[in-house]
Write a structure and sequence with these properties.
alpha/beta; Rossmann fold; seven-stranded mixed sheet
Amino acid sequence: MRKKKSKAVAIIVAHPDDETLWAGGTILSHPSWHWFIVCLCRGSDKDRAPRFLRTMQVLGSEGIMGDLDDGPEQRPLDEIELERAILQLLPSMHFDLIISHNPDGEYTRHVRHEETSKAVIKLWHAGKISAGELWTFAYEDGNKKYYPRPIENATLYRVLSKRIWLKKYSIITETYGFEKTSFEAETTPRAESFWQFTNSYDAQKWLNKIIST
């Protein structure tokens, strides 16, 4: 039997729990891949930072946290500061795959998710991040009409097995400690979807189209 080829994969997210909510099933389904998770905010949060590090152990991933502003007022970050933080936290190496937020976010709306996605796409297109391909989370909430749902006609869409979903759900409710009635627990998707880009030109073109609309 041929051994599955290991991949080097980086996930770049704004907050602790984003990696699990939007891609936890994908991580758990590929234990042979080498996962490195960059979380840009909450590094000094005495509750969520330790929970993020424990989650890395459960997921079998490496991880690192930054401490960018994440106040409730969601003031826009300086683009240069954001890009610098990503490059400082992300190992300087080639990744087979980078996964990050969607330029429109996963729900209506979180500025940090949108900013993170735009920065990652720009850095990849500029050659400052080396990766074979990029996946962005593909979810929507009908403009707040319902909890975020995976987009079924996205490039990649996969229903999680019951075992994988329960493991993902336990990370949200037990490791991260969210109540079962919380937004996070109620949201936890049973399927995961992504927009896939195999070259940075197409990703940048897509981003430009989103920004202009």
